[in-house]
Sequence to fold (195 residues):
Amino acid sequence: MGTRDQILDAAAEVMHTRGLARTTTKEIARAAGYSEATLYKHFRDKTDLFLAVLTERVPSFSAVLADIAHDPEAHPLRDNLIAIARGALAFYHESFPISASVFSEPTLLAAHRDALTARKAGPHKASAALARYLRAEQKLGRVAHHVDCDAIAGLLLGACLHHAFLTSFAQHPLTPAAARTHATTTVDALLPSLV
Fold:
């Protein structure tokens, strides 16, 4: 395992246990067994590390969505939405404990938001991607033309984020069976409004 991977593993662990707001690059470097200077050879700052942890150490929701959006007709609409919901649940369940602490301090949140905006990243990207996928399903005739795709994307992802909040608060693990059940019941509740 290379230096960058060791730093990322340490960052994921420290951020998961301490939260993003309370994590420092010095702590991450120490946990990885390197100096801060070595850390900065691989990452610009803590935001860079956070984004790398989200994309490389947390289950990839965007990869699931991109795969489905690439060929939406490969599976029925319901199956696609359940797969998307399961991906979102896994992502939010893992990332919520890391990112929730950033809301504890307004100046930290503002700096974090500015850093994400500068990198053309942010939590709104998932909802926008899901709405694009739903519009593609509209063109295929599998989602009714009157459906507000942005609203449906918000409802589906909101349900997944809410579940992640509740399970994190209760310190319950997200089992595959629980993820499957929650994804299925959520999609089945939304599906009648889509067709």
Observations:
- The domain at 59-193 is CATH 1.10.357 (Tetracycline Repressor; domain 2).
- The radius of gyration is 18 Å.
- The chain is about 75% helix and 0% strand.
- Residues 59 and 113 are 22 Å apart (CA to CA).
